[in-house]
């Protein structure tokens, strides 16, 4: 039976439209960093190279190599960690050119260094990409976090963050850092802005 993250990991990927507390375990990702407006072509190109690697892993058995512990699964959704440059933090309004991001796609636990190397070699041979050299593979553990499902345009996210901030305050929690994570459950190229579904999440700790 194919592993479906939407079903098996609902607590992490299908939250409610109201803030909640969650503990996020260690996860591993293909990731790439950047700065600037996510509406620019460079951002789309970076997404493309991440998916090329993710599907290279997913399709390895059909290419003649089956990693130890491999199981059929649905490729995980695109995620992004967002921050602002120091200059961007000083502005009263958001300047998207001052955004700092790390976009990523989670990989199953069976993915090892050897599997990663095979994926890179496959993409380099099959579909060479100028940003391939900028992709890294690493683990992240968010731990205690506040999250909620945001439905609607990305530009309306501040309204959801206000609810999350209020929830954190009422539960004696404070943000660990200003950066936050977004998990994109919808394809913005195919879904109208009003129906976009995005998981918003940031790390917290108890107020001392």
UniProtKB/TrEMBL annotation:
Q: Which InterPro entries match?
A: GyrI-like, GyrI-like_CCH_Lin2189-like, Reg_factor_effector_dom_sf
Which superkingdom is the protein from? Bacteria
The GyrI-like small molecule binding domain sits at: 18-199
What protein am I looking at? GyrI-like small molecule binding domain-containing protein
Q: Which organism is it from?
A: Lysinibacillus contaminans
């Amino acid at each position: 039976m194919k592993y479906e993250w939407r079903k098996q990991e609902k607590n992490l990927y299908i939250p409610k439209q109201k803030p909640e507390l969650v503990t996020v375990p260690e996860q591993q990702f293909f990731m790439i960093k950047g700065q600037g407006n996510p509406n620019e072509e460079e951002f789309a190109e970076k997404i493309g190279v991440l998916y090329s690697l993710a599907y290279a892993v997913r399709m390895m058995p059909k290419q003649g190599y089956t990693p130890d512990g491999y199981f059929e699964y649905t490729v995980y959704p695109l995620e992004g960690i967002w921050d602002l440059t120091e200059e961007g933090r000083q502005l009263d309004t958001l300047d998207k050119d001052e955004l700092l991001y790390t976009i990523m796609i989670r990989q199953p636990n069976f993915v090892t260094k050897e599997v990663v190397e095979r994926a890179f070699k496959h993409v380099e041979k099959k579909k060479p990409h100028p940003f391939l050299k900028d992709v890294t593979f690493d683990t992240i553990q968010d731990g205690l976090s506040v999250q909620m499902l945001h439905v609607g345009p990305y530009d309306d996210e501040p309204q959801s963050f206000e609810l999350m901030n209020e929830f954190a305050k009422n539960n004696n929690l404070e943000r660990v850092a200003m950066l936050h994570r977004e998990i994109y459950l919808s394809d913005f190229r195919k879904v109208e802005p009003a129906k976009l579904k995005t998981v918003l999440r940031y790390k917290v700790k108890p107020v001392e």
